[in-house]
Structure prediction request, 256 residues.
Amino acid sequence: MTHSRHAGRTVMVTGAGGGIGAAIARLYCEEGAAVALLDADADKVQQQAGALRDAGFAVAWAQADVASFQDCAAACERVQGELGPIDTLINNAGVSPKHHGAPAPIWTMAPEEWQRVVDINLNGSFNLVRVLVPGMVERRFGRIVNMSSVAGSAFLLIVAAHYSATKAAIIGFTRHLAGELGPFGVTANALAPGRIETPLLKTVSAQANQTVVDETPLRRLGTPLEVARAACFLTSSESDFITGQVVDVAGGWLMR
Ligand SMILES: NC(=O)C1=CN([C@@H]2O[C@H](COP(=O)(O)OP(=O)(O)OC[C@H]3O[C@@H](n4cnc5c(N)ncnc54)[C@H](O)[C@@H]3O)[C@@H](O)[C@H]2O)C=CC1
Ligand SMILES: CC(C)c1ccc(C(=O)O)c(O)c1O
Prediction:
């Protein structure tokens, strides 16, 4: 469905070069927003932004490693110069490293790998919040959605400890933001997707996915568009009184 629910809004989506982030960026465009796409992979994000621009949408893009505060600050300055102040931030970028197709057991995990996952999945969200929230507070309006996972509150065999820990931390971070920023007209919510068909899942066996399908009341995996719809709902005026919440997009899998 195409409508103008986000007309006049300026949205930043991290990890917008592919998977869920690309779907989120497109849906905001279709809902009338100007959209800034950020990704560490310049080729991918340029391609996504180019396709959206060719379709007539107002977009800007920047290559940025969300783990770097300097990258985030420079990217925000650049895209805000093109599109105007960002009022809606979707902290979607995230990684889940695998070794030979499997998550690293905690007793073999390199400290550098732990640090890198924390730097991207958790500190990356802080970095963009730190850069963009002062403007939201000043303008007394802002909408933030942080990407958690069902792995933030349930044990999942297919991910490693750093991933689960960062996705749990994102929930605490989101609730804190909601409490601290609510008085300034800024809401913060988190999404907790279950298994969604994206490139991040390419190392998971068909059998492992079938087990999840069998345990899921809706009997299928999710799509990036379904996560995008939840993000758009949480930043639309339909959600003006919703803050500090974690919304599962998981077909009923692992109801916790
Ligand atoms: N696919 C799934 O089943 C689920 C995904 N999630 C979360 O959703 C988010 C998106 O996941 P997917 O779309 O599946 O992943 P994906 O791997 O398909 O896309 C992630 C994007 O983030 C970018 N990225 C990675 N590191 C970055 C960095 N340091 N700085 C900026 N960009 C970076 C990548 O280049 C890529 O374009 C992640 O936070 C992930 O943890 C949560 C639950 C389930
Ligand atoms: C994309 C990450 C690694 C991932 C993979 C699978 C699930 C799941 O089965 O629910 C997740 O929640 C994830 O975050």
